[in-house]
CheW-like domain-containing protein (candidate division WOR-3 bacterium), 176 residues
Amino acid sequence: MAIRSKKDNKGKIKNPVSAFKSPVKKLEEEKGYAVFAVGNEFYCVNLDSIFEILHDFVIVPASHLPEYFEGVINLRGESIPAVNLKKLLNIVSDTNFQVCIVSISASEKIGFLVDSDVEIIKSSECQSFALPDCFSAEEQKFLEGIIEYKGRLTGIIKLNQALKTLTEWRSKNENK
């Protein structure tokens, strides 16, 4: 379809774009989330923050790391630190790790250990909410909001901020 310029009654060329000035609904880009369990709690992360999801991995213990690091994972010859989200979030549970979500931030990869398989969903399949005021300032740094999916509320974790924020928060609170 060609857009042709028209002349008005004075011989001037009319702007062909003016014909398209009717209201246009702005389309939001649909997000994808990876939903998983940590203990009995459900969380999710934006798919854009995930480098890889591992189902078959071996954790090599490393004693010199803080307690919430379980050790390192060999990812095709690269050592990736593995963070126990249960310990980091202070969740008491005796469930075993099933999946490692590898995130990349500032060219560093970190594995986050979760207790369930990961379900990939679209934002159109859930309802999202802003983070309520009941969360502390520290929690608000690593939680982006909440989604309701399959009748349950699920916290949206900002993986890029989570480790930094929670590490600072835990070390400050443990020294009191």
Summary: The chain has one domain: 33-174. Confidence is low (pLDDT under 50) at residues 1-6, 15-27. The two ends are 70 Å apart (CA to CA).
